[in-house]
Design brief:
By secondary structure, the chain is mainly α. It has 2 domains: 1-34; 47-164, Cytochrome c-like domain (Cytochrome Bc1 Complex, Chain D, domain 2), CATH 1.10.760.10. It has 6 helices and no strands. The structure holds heme C. The site of heme C has 24 residues, from helix 3 and helix 4.
């Protein structure tokens, strides 16, 4: 027959193991649920992604940003309604000044804080609910694919700087 003195360490060891398992589980769950910036990637060298992005672009973006990514005329000057015309996405535009994560959020949610001032009025639609995240990354890959190597390198540097933040 076991004396209570022999039993106690076993019970304590059991509690210790149970406690460790709970802590590890909690840590894993926290790690999975922790909010991160947008994940995913827009790879201008991935032919499949670029092709998919081209289809998305023609259907959802070209009407404003131009079939050749040339944007609308006088895109830097506000229209009589106070809103800006659609800028080009080619290397003459401003798009490549943004890191990938900002371009993704901008396309998904439109121009709203923190990427634009509160109440900012813009014709740029929010594509959340219209486009899957994969389609947004694909259209960005398509846009990046149109840039010459020099512009791609400049934008990559900005993107890498933003990821280190
Ligand atoms: C109805 C017209 C319209 C459509 C369609 C449209 N955009 Fe825009 N987009 C705009 C306008 C206008 C702006 C400039 C907004 C501003 O600064 O007020 C803009 C700005 C942007 C910017 C910011 C560029 C920069 O240099 O800051 C990105 C990125 C962008 N659009 C991506 C897209 C993508 C990707 C699509 C297709 C999935 C798309 N847009 C479809 C009108 C449109």
């Amino acid at each position: 027959m076991k004396s209570p003195a022999q039993k106690r360490p076993t019970g304590r060891a059991y509690l210790l193991i149970l406690g460790s398992v709970l802590i590890v589980t909690a840590a894993i769950v926290t790690w999975i649920m922790w909010p991160r910036g947008p994940t995913g990637r827009a790879d201008p060298d991935d032919a499949g992604q670029v092709a998919r992005g081209g289809m998305v672009y023609r259907q959802y973006c070209a009407s404003c940003h131009g079939a050749k990514l040339e944007g609308q005329p006088e895109w830097r000057i506000r229209k009589p309604d106070g809103k800006l015309p659609a800028p080009p996405h080619d290397e003459t535009g401003h798009t490549w000044h943004h890191p990938d994560g900002d371009l993704f959020l901008l396309t998904r949610h439109g121009l709203r804080p923190p990427l634009a001032p509160n109440g900012y009025k813009s014709d740029m639609p929010a594509f959340e609910g219209t486009l899957a995240d994969e389609d947004i990354w694909a259209v960005l890959a398509f846009i990046k694919n149109s840039w010459p190597p020099r512009i791609r390198a400049l934008q990559r540097a900005r993107d890498e700087a933003a990821r280190r933040r």
